[in-house]
Design brief:
Strand content: 5-15%
Number of helices: 19
Number of domains: 1
Number of strands: 14
Oligomer: single chain
Helix content: 40-55%
CATH topology: Creatine Kinase, Chain A, domain 2
Shape: globular
CATH architecture: 2-Layer Sandwich
CATH class: Alpha Beta
Amino acid sequence: MYRSTEQRLSGLLGNGSKGLLLGSLKGLEKESLRVSREGHISQTEHPRSLGSALTHPWITTDYSEALLEFITPPFQDTAETLDFLKQIHSYVYHQLDDELLWVASMPCIIGGGESIPIARYGSSNVGRMKHVYRRGLDWRYGRPMQAIAGIHFNYSYSRDFLQALQAAEGDDRPEQLFRSDAYFRLIRNFQRFGWLIPFLFGASPAICRSFAQGQELGFQEFDRHTLYEPYGTSLRMSDIGYKNKAQAGLNISYNDLDSYVASLSRAISTPDAEYRRIGTVVDGEWRQLNTNILQIENEYYSFVRPKAVARSGEKPTLALRRAGVEYVEIRALDLNPFAPAGLNEEQLIFLEILLLFCLLEDSPRISPREQAGINANQGLVARNGRDPAMSLYRGERERVRLRAWASELFQTLQGPAELLDQLRPGEPYQQALRRFRACVDDPGCTPSARMLQEMRDNGENFVDFALRVSRAQEHYFRAEALDPAVEQRFREAAEQSLREQQEIEAADNVDFQAYLDRYFAQSA
């Protein structure tokens, strides 16, 4: 069924492209809530010993002052990427006093939205912009949704590999144009097939009742403190999480770079009547950056994004126009509570296999009807993906059983896994493929199923489970002394980031409104 993958693989192998994938780069961004030992969200400021959340290259905050975000540099080796993430965890744990890093994607005990402190980044214009943007998210969507944590996987193919692919396809367009189109081919296919990730790796089938804030969410009751879905995989990816109804009407196109930038720019520049009623500055206080459908590009949630490295102060859409797509950001990963750093090497290996398949397989433009099916599939898998009778939409009209479709995909993934295993000892990609293929036949081995089973076996609610595992992972990272060279590297980075924040604040020479006007006036 997926013959174009086989054809492109044959073309690459016939073109002497063996081993070019070794140059691909992998990076991670992982969010974790700081919580008290009783499971309440931290009310303390971002620890100064961790440096400036505005300028630190590896340790920052996401929505909340308590929502840490760890960022690795890009590495060619998957194990190196994961090792760096573990080093960040170890350093952070040696700086925290009596707090834990929450191991689950869904938040801890929430005492109302006001209990979630919005992140602050100092007095500079860029720091204020980051804070006001988050205030806007509060007014638009509420704070509990913003306290959900996930992991983003950043991936780019080596220039040599993309050139080999372009040659194998006989494409003589400019290199940047081919590269962008190739990544958009991948992105469209990841939308079609990316439901495999929450099915296999979803780890948020249950939530603390406090997250619901008294709303009826349609979940079942696990116990009086916990709501859940018996076949749920990733409630983080459901309509209560990032796939919220407020953005359901946005029609962002992934058919090519120009249509993507145009549709996203339209959402950023189009006023919204409801957000106009909220206001921008009310009684001298900033509520949001503007009253448009999206304040900035990052407000639009998609579980895969095209990315380019932006220059200082450059809008992401303009960076894409200037440089083309340079890498993709996969945003479909829950925190895995059964892995110390929130995910393991096998998960990253499987993602590489799936992404290579998405790149090599033909990827026709997505029609509005197919996009509706893609969106529906994400919600179906998030809430009920392990249901043996679950069926998904394929193409514009077909409905197919999830497990039958998954089995078809795993057969086709064998070729990409073999290509990735070239020049690697032990065939790790094919081994990972066999490991996760078994979970299609027995979803009981998935993190979401294991989590619910442990809660049942131990008589735990969601918070009890997450606290127990959080304490175990704290012990894991505190058990060994931090390597002195690693500790010095992170201490120096923290000190340097604090100096850089001071320099940015001292260099501001316009007021905040003028800064925003200048930022939003950027055009290609």
